[in-house]
Amino acid sequence: EGSAQILKTNNAIRSLLGYNSSEIEKNNVKILMPSLFALHHDEYISSYLNTGKMNVVNIERTLHALHKSGYLIAVKLLVKCLPCTFSGLKFVGFLQQNDDDLAQYILTD
Question: Which of 20, 24, 41, 107 has minimal Cβ neighbours within 10 Å of its Cβ?
Fold first, then answer.
């Protein structure tokens, strides 16, 4: 329904972003984004669900994820949309540190 709740993470994601599972799971995925993108994320989901236009789904992108400490980390993101018998659709995000930008961190407010 567009709630964007994080249901499950693996150790690599938690290590990359500095969270433990209880801090990240069951929260909105917006906690992993810079505020500019987090502010509009629900609109992005709604637009996709209403139009089917894939601006992010099935397209690998390089962007910045928000580390728990406030740093932005260059990452590669691939989002897949999977049908789910009980709830319609599930979005699955595959996130990995961008090896080309290992030394690029930005502190945010």
Answer: 107
Q: Which of 80, 42, 33 is nearest to 60 (CA)?
A: 80
**Cα(39)–Cα(106) distance, rounded to whole angstroms?**
19
**Gap between the Cα atoms of 41 and 48, Å rounded:** 11
Listed in sequence order, the residues at least 6 apart from 104 whose beta carbon sits closer than 8 Å to its beta carbon are 73, 74
Q: What pLDDT, in 10s, does the model give residues 80-94?
A: 888 877 777 888 889
Helix (H) or strand (E) holding 61: strand 61-66
CB burial of residue 61 (10 Å; 0-12, 13-18, 19+): exposed
* Structure token digits, residue 97: 């540190």
Sign for the CA dihedral angle at 86, 26, 9, 11 comes to negative
